Amino acid sequence: MTLMETEHTTWTKQFINGEWVEGSGEKIVENKNPYTGEVIATWRSSNKEDIDQAYEAAQKSSVKWKKSLPAVKEGILRKVSALMVERKEEIVKLLITESGSTRIKAEAEFASAKRIVDEAASFPYRMKGEILPSNTPGKENRVVREPKGVIGVIGPWNFPLHLCLRSVAPAIALGNGVVIKPASDTPITAGWLIADLFEQAGLPEGVLNVVAGSGSEIGDYFVAHPVPKVISFTGSTKVGQGIGKLAGEHLKETALELGGNNAMVVLEDADIERAAASAVFGKFLHQGQICMALNRIIVHADIYDTFVESFVAKTKKIQTGDPADAQTLVGPLIREKEVERLLDLIKGAKAEGARLLLGGTSKGSVLEPTVLADVKPEQHIVQQELFGPVAVLMKAKDEQEAVRLANDTPYGLSGSVFTGNLDRGYQVAQQIESGMVHVNDQSVNDEAHVMFGGEKSSGIGRFGGDWAIEKFTRTRWISIQHQYRDYPGVQ
């Protein structure tokens, strides 16, 4: 029996200083299943006083938490990982129900989230300091690494568990306190579920807290609050720019993973069938609602027609509809208004000369996989982060034009190159202006021990492995004068 079937009361309450408490805000929010429209839970939003209490609890508890032994921190993370395995089916069902994840996507998200927790469990042993030489007689220079204090995490709705744990697990493992503000569309899997797992694992009270409310009401206060040293945000570039500006005014550090307009470049020597299969997955997984999803598929003119034929044929075989069906690849968008937005973009692209080869219709919150061919770089749809199951196919006359088209965007998150020559693929990848590029693979890749992050308008900072350790800790110089110094001019 799942927790939703037993009406788990914590799925409607905030988690502050180790207690599940009612939000203090005036607004009542409904948490809906995006596929059925069914109300999952109704909860009262947090207000500024709740945020004050959560940050104060995290700050107070982090003083003791950072001093706990590495084995204690590791043990909590190992327990969370074990609990995730025990509760896997429940977690997968929550992802399907709350965020509209297909089972294929939910299983992948679960696996990625667990790997993050497992990787973070090693972090307490990887906080390295240094002893450096000095030109001052008798001086010992120590560079110490320590937690930054309190981390504020603003989570997204598309990969709610994975992308919140990407910051929460490392921050806690490194000795920080944490406050989460999950996306209002997915407060369970981006917040309360995580708190429940850590509470069950024995994390001391106050180290992890969750407040929930709309960004328009409490977002600025959450960011500008004097307690958090770092604000970690995953979401749209527009919102991220606002967070970066506000954090900058308060000299607060950020980790921002923002939007993407990712391209796959398919060169004339590529294996067309393999490239097409990869492109279908990279475009349509989770309905394209992934920051790393392929927006533009740029194909060399010599193989363009053959690639288009293969891509359309494979897309036609995609199963759509009920996300709980194990064979479904494309389920519902998070809200029906997102369907309307995409239909308008498709209509505009057709008016500008694009050929609609497939899709362009919807049923409820499910938009059929859509393929637009012969799209030109000047068309409006090319510069958009689509965040939906709409594939844009573009033709390039040669490798140089393909690279130019790939870089013709303010974004720079992830990318892909398909070729029969791996050395050539590496050389082309080096020319693409994005934080991540994958040769002979699609753009949706994330490994817990490898850096993750974008360039240009796709964000600031890096997540994963040693890069997460760098982000959520600080270094300080502490010198020890083993013999007293003589100072010029001082008797």
UniProtKB/TrEMBL annotation:
Keyword Isomerase carried by entry: no
Top EC class for this record: oxidoreductase
Reaction equation(s) it catalyzes: salicylaldehyde + NAD(+) + H2O = salicylate + NADH + 2 H(+)
Pathway terms, separated by semicolons: Aromatic compound metabolism; naphthalene degradation
Keyword set, alphabetical order: Aromatic hydrocarbons catabolism, NAD, Oxidoreductase
InterPro entries named in the record: Ald_DH/histidinol_DH, Ald_DH_C, Ald_DH_CS_CYS, Ald_DH_CS_GLU, Ald_DH_N, Aldehyde_DH_dom
Signal peptide location: none
EC number: 1.2.1.65
Active-site residues, record numbering mapped to chain: 257
Aldehyde dehydrogenase domain mapped to chain residues: 20-478
GO MF entries: salicylaldehyde dehydrogenase (NAD+) activity
Highest taxon above the source species: Bacteria
Recorded family membership: Belongs to the aldehyde dehydrogenase family.
Protein name listed in UniProt: Salicylaldehyde dehydrogenase
Native source organism of the sequence: Paenibacillus pabuli
